[in-house]
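FAQ: What does a ligand-bound record look like?

Like this one, built around NDP:
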Amino acid sequence: PKPTPKLTLVVAVAKNGVIGRDGDLPWRLSSDMKRFKAATMGKPVLMGRKTWESLPKKPLAGRQNLVLTRDATFVAQDAWVYTDLDAMVAAGRAMALEAGVDEVCVIGGAQLYNALLSRADRIVLTEVDLAPEGDAHLKFDLSTWREVSREEVPRGEKDDAAFTVRVLER
Ligand code: NDP
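The answer part, i.e. the structure of the complex:
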């Protein structure tokens, strides 16, 4: 039998724990967006309704988009809508198996990350070298996680800051 697809959080966080402001990202990091695309391509992506609304282009192309809301009447064009977190995770895993990919990616926002950290297998963590004002924060205790890779990325032309990409596993 095939192994259960992993649950991976893909998240960019500032030094002060901020991940969002006014329904958007508090920074522009073109180089990290490219990495995000590569890391999630072909995989089911799980997100909260506010993150769905924040996407400039909906759905994220080449990925099955799953959206969580408490509004049973919510319609998201070309995405799957769930009102139950467990049902969404189970559906994401089933889609990953079906697609032959080894992970499901949680792509935000703060509510989704904080709700799913306890069941995550892996975190792709972009640590942004900024400390902006914000209204969405991570409440992560990463002390029980081990770093499996780390890459320092210098600030590119279309980036607001340098950043470090760390992959963490249990
Ligand atoms: P989320 O994107 O996590 O969405 C929250 C919504 O999800 C809730 O309002 C609700 O939708 C639904 N929801 C949450 N939990 C449940 C549940 N248990 N059952 C059913 N529905 C649920 O919102 P946040 O405000 O936490 O985060 C958005 C912010 O994060 C934005 O600023 C965004 O730009 C940022 N962001 C940052 C990322 C990064 O890596 N830096 C990545 C992604 C987003 P409803 O209200 O419809 O009922």
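Follow-up question: can I read anything off the structure? Yes, for example: Residues 8 and 122 are 5 Å apart (CA to CA).
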